[in-house]
Amino acid sequence: MKFCLVSNLRTMGKWTTSANEIRNWAYALDGDVYYAGAIKDYSYFDQYDVVMIELTTNLFDVAINLRKYSNTKYVIGLVEGSILPEVDEDQFTKYIEVLNTLDIIGVINDKAKDVLQPYTSKRVEFIGIPYPLEWAQQNNSDTKQAVIELGALSISRGSVYSVAVVKNLRSQSCVSLGFDFVAYPLNNSEVKFYNDLGLDYKLAPIKEWPDYYKEHSRYYMGIHLDSRTTWGRFPLDCASALMPCVGSYGSYSQEILFPDITVNYWEVKKATRLVQQLICDDLFFAYVVSHAQEKIKEFDIPIIRQRFLNLL
Known about the structure:
Elements: E1 3-7, E2 13-14, H1 24-28, E3 32-35, E4 50-54, H2 60-69, E5 74-79, H3 89-99, E6 104-107, H4 111-116, E7 123-126, H5 133-138, E8 147-150, H6 159-170, H7 173-176, E9 180-183, H8 188-196, E10 202-203, H9 209-216, E11 221-224, H10 233-240, E12 245-248, H11 252-257, E13 262-263, H12 268-280, H13 282-295, H14 301-311
Parallel strand pairs: 1-3, 1-4, 4-5, 5-6, 6-7, 8-9, 8-11, 9-10, 11-12, 12-13
Antiparallel strand pairs: 2-3
């Protein structure tokens, strides 16, 4: 089976790098990646059996054209990010057209199936994103540092809730004594925003995922209260690195990997208490990590790949 992933990411050709993001579909299926902005002739995709396209608002027309003007057997839309893209009323009408044009709509949170299926006669299937578990575990650090990592800095990804937990912990020095906090900004505007807030935790430089993961695996635990309904990349990185992640409902991986330390994103006090418990109770920490180690196998490349192939 020849596979190609079309996305907003400016990469082209055979994808041979493990990563915790959508291009890992090309890695898992020994396929190619194609930057949507470079498409000139849709017949180029006739050579592929399956073309998967990231369903962001700027790619709605590209997705429709892929189905109309190429002879590939399957065009699959990947609903990436939250259940619905950030759209206005006109864009949602176009989104419904996309849902009814492509052959399969692939979602990365099982809750999205019930939301999207009423809008289309086409198949809406849970596919997820294959996680590079073998690579990650082979690159785990042998040592841990007393560092707690925040899973996001952008307000759109719920950072204000995680920061509230950090502020609580900072005010309780008997618990957080000796622990540092770190976050990885996505852009310079996030750096400025948090500097303006006067937060006293470390902002790490932006890194590609393999370099980020090696650094991440040295940390003690993560906090990620996210108001979206998502796949949950950060909890996966935490579970693979033997780190608990205090996170929120709506993250598919969080609910499976860390059910005992999952809260509603607004439950800041409860999340603070769970972080305290993980710091103070070694048996609870070990139990949480052990559960995540068992469950993360469900996200490994061979499992996710086979589930996808069974759909075709």
